[in-house]
Structures are given as structure tokens and as C-alpha cells.
Amino acid sequence: ERHAALALAWAAPAVTYAVARACGALSDGAGCRSSLGVGFDLWQVLVAHAVVSGFGLATQLLFPATRAERIWKTTPVPPHRRALRYVFWAAVLALKVLVSLTILRSVGQEIAALDLVTLGREPVDEINRFWYSTAWGLDVLLWLLLWSMGFFLFVADTGLWYQIACTVLGVFSILAQRPRFALERSAPKIPERFSKKVFAFARCRPGQKYAEAFPAVWDRIMEHMLLEDKCNPDAAQKHSFGEALAEAAEEGAVREGGLGGVIAPRPVSRCNKAGIDLAMSSETAVGSVELHGAGLANAEARWRLGSLARCLALPMPKPFRAPYIPGITVLIPHFREDILVAKEDLYAGAVEAVPLIDFVKARCPDEFALFEARVLRTPDKAISDADDGWATYSDEQWDSICMWSSMRLQTLWRTVAGICEYRSALQAHHEAQADEDCKLAARGVWDPNDCFTCLVSMQLYREFSPQQYQQANRMLDAFPSSLKVAFIDSCEKNITAEVDGVHQRQPRRYFSCLIDGNCLVLPVGRRAPRLQIELPGFPILGDGKSDNQNHAVPFMRGAYCQCVDSNQGAYFEQLLLLPCVLGEFRTDERGGDQAKRIVGLPEHITSDFGSVGDFAAGSELAFGTVLQRSHALLGARMHYGHPDIMNKQYMMQQGGVSKATKTLNLSEDIFAGMDFMLRGQGRQIRHCEYMYLAKGRDLGFGAVMSFFLKISSGTGEQMLTRQMFRLGQILHLPEALSFHYAHAGYYLTQAFVSLSMPLVVTTWLLVLAADCERPFGAFMNCPQASAGEAMASMLSAWCSWVIAFLLVAQALPLFAQSWVETGLRGAVLRMAKQWATLSWCFFIFQAKLVGFQVLKEIRFGGAAYVSAGRSLPTQRRPFVGRMGHDGARLEAVGGLYLDYAELAFYDGAKLLLSTLVVVYLGGIAGGFTWTFVGLTIFSWLYAPFLFNPYQFSKRDFAEDLAAWWAFFFKGRSSQWVGWYTGTLLTPRRGFRHSVWDFKALLCYCSLAVWFAVMSFKMDLFQSIFEGRSTPLTSQVLALCPPIALSLAYCAFATCVECCIGGSAMPLARNKAMGIGHANEEYKSEASEAAPHSKGATLAAPQLGIPLPVSASAILVLEVVEAILPLRALCAQGWRQAFVAGLMLKLALTSLVLFLAEGVVRCRYFKGRAKVFGRPVEILVHANRLAKDLIISMFMLATLSVGVMLNTLNEVVFPQSNLHQMLIYRSWPLAASERA
């Protein structure tokens, strides 16, 4: 019955449409009554059709066809929250539809202006008369194309509307929590709010609103600022209550090396002055802190105190009181990240590159000055004032410098140092407001280590180098005993293996091990484990991180766990709010709904160094604050790994803190959130913004793009999982829409937006090519408006706005959050700085990469982990490779062109060619349209080069030219063949998968439209020039692909090879692997090896016609064969027909090459048909080589303009390099010539 009712709801619109068409076909509306016997007028039938169609759509959206398989009871949503979500999506969709009516109206107006067939309203008798004519077929295809483009653009921007609406909702949400944030000075209110919300159990003096312990805690906060070099001693003393700061300064480095370990616990009473006037002191010490001014010179110190003031203004639950604070374990997965930065990493003595320590010093000049002054104060570490600088420092001085730099780079040491401040914060709570009536709170009984554990899961600890073992042991010795390390150990099977139940096919025995600072150091450098748990087999079954986390779960202590990454940090003043965050889990009874939670926290991005670092930091800031705030309200927030706090007991019920299936769970953390939501029964995911952790993001262009490459691949796999399917079944419509557009829909929106510009330009080109030949207008039925004028009207109405809309949607969340944090002036300055440093170019390219990768993952699969790297962008990435020292051979293959050729450069060149053809055909549009078409082309072709350090250096560009010549021409193009075969020509399973996919469908659709245009033009040309003898063969050749001469040449080349007994090119034997693995090598910024070395094994070059010669010959033959059949059209001035013929032949050639590539990559061809398919292989390789040569030459030629401008810049302004200032946003650093 349910299916019958739904089928009836969907069939009813078809019936009413048929009735409306029948009524409309009559001569007048009144005749509808007499002829059909229907008692309604036409307008009434149309109204009924609209109502029935709307009812059918609502039925499909609100009443699913199948009942959801609910294993657990869904968590109930409060009525007011459910109403908010329905209102939110009703407003978003209503606004979108109202605005999108512009594009739909413009499409209808263009169809009317071009006098095309309106298939939906054309009488049936006219269809019967004209369906076989080429004119009618062309009109129908153009009609379908225009409406398809309109529908695609209508769908493409839904995710952007959602992101803008989430920004508005997030701003209103924070205003509801802090209604007076824009009118109050929040810093002077820190003492009162901190005492009321955090020290809720502390004693207060009579008549005072502040806790007695607050001055001591505030002084401890300033002590941390002082020892972290965030402020000088005078500023710290000015903004403190007592004399503890002076004592700390006299004591020197409380941490190892000044800042390596944890600040030693200082009794709270020690910081209190006798008879202190708390009210007056709070006004002078705290109230004098200027959060947006010059009160503190260090920007991060101002942010930290401002963030504390904002957090205290937000509502938060009552904190737990010592000794009743529940236990929590912070889990830090570690793979290959640096533990400490070594001297060799900071300063290698290179002459040609700027040392990394110079970048760190330039990033934190005030902090380095304070650090230098503090180190100079001790006589055993006197730093020389000589001009030669870094090379004169002693090993002991370099040890301090390495420690200082490690706390400002993305190292594990920085993460552990920050997380271990949890212990100091809990100790401060115990001293300030412990329950003195409880025996457990007695001094010497309660220990913060009992409720806090920092657990580092080192996946590769067993395989560490001696230097890594030394750094790990130093870390265990420097930090408190709450620091533990879990790792995976293995040993050979012994005689007890069979008794212990070890499987006979298992070669080794594996153990989860735990060590701490008290464990014995073995002779090899690693420590003997304190605890061991034997595992049922090799535990790393997925991509690594998820297994690395889950195997350490048994070693967690306490009921709660927090997962952070090894590039994060923490601040002491923020960690004081931990008992309040744990209050989110407080319940009246065991197992209450409050305990079934994942509590998400925001992050402070500290890696905003340079333009790319600031772009990545801004995106992460917006996502972690205003967007996640809205996602939580809309029921769409999931678990993102860091720095969420979870109830460990409920996470263990679903298999761990993340999922670990290889490839499928590449984005491992979000699956824990989806499983958590699926289990229902009161489980919730919240987002709280009153406690921040620090976070470092990628800094280089290649590293950022590799990160998005990874998460896009993970999203493509994520959309195929059963978790997504089941959530789509059980969620209500607004939650389902929010969940989609907050996750998979975001990446699909990026893909749609990236495809929108090529679709618009291609449609523009088709309409122009199908237009009348104006010199022969008397012979044609031409509309009054030309195709150029009609398209200009539509483009100005909407089509080119999609890219502008993308940039606004990307920038608005960051602008809103910056406004909340730094005020309107700070937000405007940040956005202006981003746009001035070409953020639009970065985000357009990022959208292209994300869209390409997610669609590719859906089509082919094969997602793989891509190591991004988080180092500073100090090294230049070459064009295609790096030449050897002798300058005669290519030492390493890998560069920007090879990284992004398939992702963006090919499509950018196609879009540029299509735009030039549009201009040639007389395409006109407003400046707005041309601007965004140009921005898209420019970004797709040149974004990687603009953000590449030293890209336009004259010496490096000359090396690029030499490497380009060696890559494409030397060794019979062996390097290019290896790269192309190992990455772009990877094999797939079966012939069907090799020659047919979504790209083939698009090729056939494009071919059908161009064939219709050319058929119409050729028929018209033949009818006009009836007296002229036009051979039938010429007409046939005009509609055929230009590959006959090319195939003949390939057959000739094969015969030559057979006669000589060699091959024209090296035979690349592919390994069966996915393209993601092949790309992994040269996606990394630090990659030095040839990227094709993983994907192909090259045989020695053999005799035959060189591949570059074949590529040039085949290109000339194809051009000649394409132009000759169309010379009559060109001679008569039929420009549109001539261009249509060329585009048809280009489409046919592309389709033939696509199918030929599929044949070459299929397994049968690689095995049995290798010899017989040699001409096909030559055809494919020659055409692809010709394409790469043309595109790379064009890009090198245009980049040479930048080299000339950069050379002029160095001559006129030698101290100010504009390109380096664009990348680093600071005064350019010069390479050390004294190294």
C-alpha cells in the first residue's frame, strides 16, 4: 500500500501534464470543455498540475519509499531545535530559488531570442513533420543544452548558499550567547568571571567578587607568558599581582632550555601578597591589558588573553571540583613527525638557500629577541655579537636554539609540552578550590597524575633511528610521569606459540606495549616495555593512523579521552577550563544521556606564516568556529579527530575512536562520529567554544594541496559507505540536507563550481558556432538577435557569478569570525591583505583540485594516504625535474607541471583555447563575465607557480629550461614515457572499465551536439551552392575524425621498428597500482626521487623513430587532415561552420584517443595483443606527448615574462623582491653568503 500510494503521487503529475497539453493544443481555452469533456478552464488545469506536482515532490522528500532499518532508537531532538532546522532550510531554499529565477528567466529569454524549438510546448503534428530535419535536431539539442546548463548552475551553488547561511546562523548564535560582546571591554571582567565560572568553589573575601586564589593563578598565567617569550619581564610584572614573576625571571629557565618542559608547580599561596587590594590590583593588572592595542607587544599573547576573556563570557557548566575531577587521557598519534628540530634542519650551512632558522626568527622577531636576552643573561651561554651569526654558536647554544625553534614549529615536543600543562592546570584547581573535607584532597594524597595521562602512540617506535631514540628518551625524562608512550612491538614465534593459540600462518607475534620515564633504557636506545598486550595479528590493517590510535585504547586511564594531532599545542590559561568542559558530561545517574557525548572544541591556528599559511589558517579557523557552531545547531557536526573529548566507554562499544578499513576509511575520524550518531539512544555531538587548543596547519602550496587531495579522496570513499547510507535513511530532511552539505556536499559543490565555467564557455561556443552565417543571412531563417547578443544577456544575468559567489562564500565565514575576535577593522584588514596576496587565485585552484579529485575517486576509487608535510615553504619546486651538478642529465624527476598537469593545467589550456575561439567568433559579454573567465584561466594555469618560492629566479628558470629539454627529448623521451605510463596510463580491471566511464559519456554528448551543428551547416552549404560540384567524399571527410594519415604513419613506424629490430621508445611496464600511489611521491614538497619510479620500470631505449619526431609528424598530419575537408567553408567566409568543423574533429579525435588509451591500459593488451597493437600505442603516446609539449612550452613562455619582471625588480630595487613579499608577506630574506 505504501509503494502504491507513492507511485500514485508520482504518476498524478504526468496525468495532469497530459491534460494541460491537450487543453493547450486546442484553439481556445473554452474549447477544452467541449472537446475533452473537462469542466475546467486551462488556467485551472495548470493550477491543478502545479499543486499535484508540488504534492508529489513533498511526498518524495518527507515520506521515504522504504522504511529505515533502525537498529537503535534515534536520539530525540527537542521541538524548538527541530523547528529551527526546518525554518533554516526553508529560508535557504526559498532565497536560493528566488535568486535563481534570474538564470531560469535568462535561459528562457535566450531561447526565445534565438528562435529555438521549445520542445515542451511544440505541437505533436509539428514534431512529426520536422523531427528528421537537421535544423529541428540542432534546435532540440541546443534547447536541451541551454536548459541543462541552467539546471546545472542552479544545483551548483546550493552548497555555497548553505555556507553563507551557516555563517549568518553562527554569528546570531554567538550573539545570543554574548549579547554585549561588541559593547564591553572584556579584559577587566576576567577576574570576576573566572572566579564565578572556573573557581566556583574557591573562597572569596567578604564584599569582594573575586576568589582569593585568582591573583596567584593570574600570576602563573603571566609566568607562562614570560617563560614562553611572549612578553618581556617589565610587561609581565606590570600585568601581574605579586612578585613571583621577578622570582621566576631570576630563577632563569624553569623549563629545560628555557621552554622545553612543564613549568614546575608553584604553590598558590606563594604568589599572594599580604594585604593586597584585590579590586584595585585587578584593575591595574588585568584591566590594563589591551586586547587589540599596544598593551602587549606580542600578537599571540594579546590573542590568548583576548580569547580567555571571550571564553569566560560564554555560558559553561559548573566545573568539577578536586578531588572529584574525572580521569582523562589525551591521545597523540605519532608517525613520522619530528620530535625535536635538529641543528641540521635549522641551519645546514647552505649558500644557495635561506636557513630555516632565519624564517623562524623572522616569524617571531620579538620572541627571539627576548629569548636571546634571556640566554645572554647566563655566563655559560654568551652569544657572540659577531656579524657571521649562526655559524659561531656553540653546541650548547644550538641546543637551546633547537628547543626554542621546536616550540614554534610543528613538532611532537611542542604538542607534548602543551598537553602536559593539563597537569599544572589540575594542580592549580586542587590548590585553589579542593574539597578540604575529603581525605582524598589532602596534600600528598591527591596527585594530578591520577586523573590525567598524556599517551603518545608511536607507530614506528621500534624502527627509530638512534637520534630519534635519544629525542624520545629526552622527552620522557623532561616531562612528568603522566607522559606515557604506546608502541607496537614484534618478535619471532617461539616454542610456546602453538600453546598460546598463535595461528600457524602468522609469521611473527605482535604486542601493544607501554613505556614511561621509569622504564629501563636498552643498549639499542629504546626502553623496555612496562606493559605488553599480545595482539591477534599485525594490527596496521588500514592507512595507519586509526590502527595506531585504537591499539593504544587499553592503556587509556579515566572515563574520557581526547584525541589530538602531533602538530597541536595548548595554553595553560585555556587548560584551566578543563573541569568546566568535563562538566558537559555530568549526569545525575550512571549511563545518563549527558554522558553519551562527543564534545568538540575550537582550535587556534598558529601557522599563519606567509600567504599560503594564512589562507590555510583562515579556512581552518572558520571551519573550527563559526561553521562547526552552526553544524552543531543543525545536527550535522561529526567527530573530526582533534581536539574532541569523548566518553571512552561509549567509543569502545563501537570499536574504537576511529575506523580502520584501508582505503574506505581514509578519513578515519568522521566514521567514529557517524557510528556514534547511528547508535542513537541519547547520544549527542556538541560544540563548545570556551576552551581552545593550538593547531598547526600546512604552510607550503604543495603541502596544502596534498592535504586537500587526501581529504577529497577520503570523501569520495566516504560517500560509498553504509554509514552514509544509513544516516540518509534515519535523518529527517533538514538534518539530512545539513549533513550532506557540511561534508560530502561541500566537495561536490567545489566540483560543480569548477565545472561551471567550462560548461558556460562550451555552451557559449556552441551557440555562437550554430549561429547564422551573417553574409548569407538571406538564405537562412535568422532571428533578429545574434547569438552573441543573446548569450551576452544571459551571461550578464547570472552565469559568471558562480565564481564570484564561490569567493564570497569562502571569505564570509572567516570575515565573520575575525570580526567577532578582532573587531570590524581587524576583519577588514585581514580580508584586504588576503585579496591583495591573491587569495582568490589560491581558492579557485583549490576548488579545481578538490572537485577533480572527488569525482575521480567516485569514478575509479583507489584512495591512498598522501603525506603532506608541514615544513616552512623555503625550497623551490622545479618545473619538471632537477638537473645534476654536471648539467648534462636529469638527476630527479618531479615538479609543478607533473604535479598538476592532469589536475588543472590540461583543463586550463582547454578553457583558454575555447575562450579564444569564442572571441574569434564574435562573442561579447560584460566586463564582469570576462573578468571571472580570465581569473579562472589564470588560476588554473599559474597558481602553483605564483606561490612557489624563487620561481622567477633567472638562474633557476634556466635550469628549468634545461630540465624540460632533458625530460621531453633526451633518451628518446624515456623520462616522459615513464611518468605518463606510471601515472596517467595506469591499468584498470577489465576492458569495460578501461574504455567506458563518465568521461566517455560527456565525450559522446559533446560529439552529438557538434555533429548536429556540422550536419546542419553542411546541408545548408550544399543547398546554397547547388551549382558547385561538392564531392560526397568531402562531405564525409568533414564529419570524420582526422586520424587516417596518423594511423598510416603509426603503421609505417611499426614496420620500421620491425625491420630495425627495435622500438621507438622505452617500454614502460606498469605495476598494478592506483594513481594515488603514483602521485604520492611527487606530491610531497620534499620529494627528490623520480615520481614514475614507483609506477613503471623502464627498459633501455631501443632503435626506431624517436618519439618526439613521431609526435611532431602526427600532429602535422592531423592538422592537415582536419583542415583540408573544410577549406571550402573557409574560402566562402563561413567562419562559424569552419570552427564547428574543427571542434567536431577535435571532439572525434579526443574520443578516439580516449578509447585507444583504454585499449592500451587494459590487461589483455598488455599481455597478448602487445605486438598487434603497437600502432595504437604509438598513436596514443605521440598525441599525448605533443599535448604536453605544447602546453608546457606555452607555460614556460608566459612564465618567462615573470622572470624578466623579477630581474628588472632586482636591478631597480635589489632589497625588495615583490614575489618573495607575496609569498612570505615580509621583507625578503637573502641567502647567507657567509655560510
Please give a structural write-up.
The strands form 4 sheets. The protein has a 9-stranded mixed beta sheet, sandwiched between helices. A 3-stranded mixed beta sheet has the order 7-12-9. It is mainly alpha-helical. The chain is globular, with a radius of gyration of 34 Å. The model is unreliable at 252-265, 269-283, 381-388 and 1067-1101 (pLDDT under 50). The protein has 48 helices and 16 strands.
Q: Concise description?
A:
The chain has 1235 residues and is mostly helical. The strands form four sheets. The chain has a nine-stranded mixed sheet with strand order 5-4-3-2-1-6-10-8-11, sandwiched between helices.
How far apart, in Å, are the first and last alpha carbons? Answer: 84 Å
Largest sheet: 9 strands, mixed
Q: Radius of gyration, rounded? A: 34 Å
Unreliable stretches covering 5 or more consecutive residues: 252-265, 269-283, 381-388, 1067-1101
How do the strands of the widest beta sheet line up side by side? 5-4-3-2-1-6-10-8-11
Number of helices: 48
